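hey can u check if this looks right to u? its 456 residues, i copy pasted from the old doc so theres a chance i mangled smth
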Amino acid sequence: MPTVSIVCEGFEDQAAATGRGFGLDGLALAVTVGHVDAQSAEEIETNFCDQTLAQVIEGLTATAPTAGAGPGSDEPGSRDTIISGSIDEVNASFLAHGWSDGLPIVPPTIARVEAFIAATGHDPWKRLGVAKTSGRDITVWSIAVNAVMSGCAPEQLPVLIAVAQILADEGYGAEHSGNTTGADALMIVDGPFIDDLGFNHGQGALREGVHANTSVARWLRLYLRNVFGFTADEHDKATFGNSTRVVLAEDMRALSDIGWDPVSADFGFEAADDVVTMARFNSGLIIGSVYGSTPEEILPYLADGLVRVSGWDLTHVYGLGRAHYRPLLILSPILARTFAGAGWSKADVGEALFARARMPAWRFEKLIGDWSNLTAGRRTLVDLAADGHVPPVFAESNDPDRMVPIVTHPSKFVIAVAGDPNRANAYVMSNDGPHGDYTARWIDRSHSSDLVCAVT
């Protein structure tokens, strides 16, 4: 069927790569003139009729693209040697080709990659899915190549495979990894393997410097770059980027002591399971020196931080997604113990935050309407509640100054416990909704039987 994709200026390469990822190499494009948010409706219409329309007609009448062409045939094979030489020459070549993140890499020789995989017995050519943004296969081999480059240890391979499965999951939405607001993925790990593999969950959590947290995080960025096309030439259209988000490991001992479940339990897992949960986040905000010895005293700090970090992200309550907004609250262990010591469960904290983390209705409506073009119609919260798009709590009156919650249900607050156990600080992040939605996978650390022949 003749098809044309209409895109904004500057998104031609991203659109072409996406088309290739969906099996339509050479998908016809029609480019709009200028940025749609910086033009009047009349200017958009004039530019479309004068310039874009001709491209639409040409695309609909031209020869259809080749289905299933996949990535370019000029790409090297999985076991091809693409550069030989000194460590300096290898790194210079990888930089020139855009295969590194700007830092030195470990050359992924065939011997290194094979040894990396052999430790866990996985089939190197096992296919976990297809990268929609490039059409490339997601394989154990490609995972290992980028793991060697980033300095990962072989025992981390099961973690990397679980993350690759998240990237292949349609519910996560890896194709949005390069959206213009620059949100970046955060991996949250839970389970006994945290201590076994040396992940830091204490002082300096979210800071680079510990091998496990840092190398796995670097692997994700390299894998997105080299397999998913997460580069400025293809899919990374971030206006402002974030630094690599170091893996967040929860303090499992503190959680066990206070009787709270980890983040993974929100997504159907048991506390004893090894799990990685991933989502993409826009902004982060420290809540420092939280003062108080009771839940009632410390709640105002936390609620205020959650409101302050929430802005245009609220379009994920209504607009780009339905109730997708799920901000992350990271409590230092001392704060979590304060709640638990008073008999509060995680659910109790969520209920209290739902009641306190609120903003004036007029501001909420500005963020999802007048200050954004992402929600059609500029409808009020009362209108949205009448149609069942948001809960009745958003429309208890018509008073524009009434306080409304920032999420649609108390369970939408995701609460993690990590950081220095002797400091009363918290951290909040605003998530990017369906542009990298919360997705969790079990980490299978058992020796793989991929290459074992079954005898019956």
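The mean pLDDT is 91.
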